[in-house]
Amino acid sequence: MNAPPRRTATRPRPTPGTFPPPPAVGGHRPQTEGPSLWPAISFLRRVREGMAGGQDPVSALAGAGLALPSDARRSLDQVARRLSGLYPEDEWGFDEEFAEAAMPFMEFLYKRWWRVHVEGELNVPSHGRALLVGNHAGSLFPWDAFMIGTGILEEHPLPRFARFLVVNWAFELPWVSIAIRKFGGVPASPYNAIRLLEQDELVGVFPEGVKGTGKDFRDRYRLQRFGRGGFVEIALRTGSPIVPVAVVGSEEIYPKLAESRALARLTGAPFFPITPTFPLLGPLGTIPLPSRWRIEFCDPIDTSGYGPDAAGDRTLVFELSERVRETIQEKLYENLVKRGAAFP
To answer: Measured on CA atoms in the order 297, 302, 304, 310, is the torsion positive or negative?
Structure first.
């Protein structure tokens, strides 16, 4: 299949004072201040400053809520218009202009809220197909996917957008599903993954699935089973290199203490988490805690030499799946030690 023409992640959007300026040489944006589409940045900054000053999460949230910027309604109206407007999208619903407009928010989360440290970014291919395989956490919203993608855009010398497979339930949520699509999320299925890779996209998957996002806080950073190795079959069929990705920090943003089966049935969610702040604080309890993150892109595993027929070799599929899983688990333990305390 011939790959469609690609747009790069570095193309500037000339709206001075609203969107980030064009990147400098090497793909890095100059650090400038300006108005943002996302008043949530100011809110989250106040929450983090309150916690850094010794306040408990509840007090920090309450103080930040009283100090919401006066232009919140105007900014959110702009976002709402874009979510419902007629803007160019690809066949998957990805809107590059929307993703770039949202970069101030993602950069705030990446640099200020979670203070993400990235290693091994050069292991991500600068062009062509590749399969990113990571551990999964962060409850039902794919914050880890967004931070992996932001890390590639921020740190890689030749940044590119990553497309992540997201659990189908997320696409049933009003507004949230639209935003996920516009950011590059795609309903999780082997067919979609294969098509994206055949288009030479950078595709991210989380083999743990709901088992990863739904595990209790006491089981954090203990990888769940990777299923039957479907991601390996996809890589073999398409000749895509596999890049294991270890994410530390996402397990602390929504510490799951328990879950409500009744509320899960009511909402149709795979599970309904009970955390220290949710549902006790209502909508405020959905704000992720400002843990420190580390993301490591591990050495890629070349699958091109096996050929597509190797996808039917169950022994090979299992061996490669376990190799990826063991690599991620080892790097999780290493990065937990390097990071130290989650909330310094």
So the answer is: negative
pLDDT of res. 63: 73
- Across the chain, mean pLDDT equals 81
Q: Is the distance from CB of 300 to CB of 242 less than 8 angstroms?
A: yes
Task: Kindly state the helix (H) or strand (E) to which residue 230 belongs, with its residue range.
Answer: helix 230-238
Could you give the CA distance from residue 199 to residue 2 in angstroms, rounded to a whole number?
A: 7
Rounded Cα distance, 240 and 242, in Å = 6
Give start-end residues of each CATH 3.40.1130.10 domain in the chain: 89-339
Q: Would you say 133 and 207 are in contact if contact means Cβ atoms under 8 Å apart?
A: yes
Architecture of domain 89-339: 3-Layer(aba) Sandwich (3.40)
What angle, rounded to 10 degrees, do the helices at 72-84 and 176-183 form?
Answer: 70
Does residue 223 register a pLDDT over 90? yes
pLDDT at 7 over 50: no
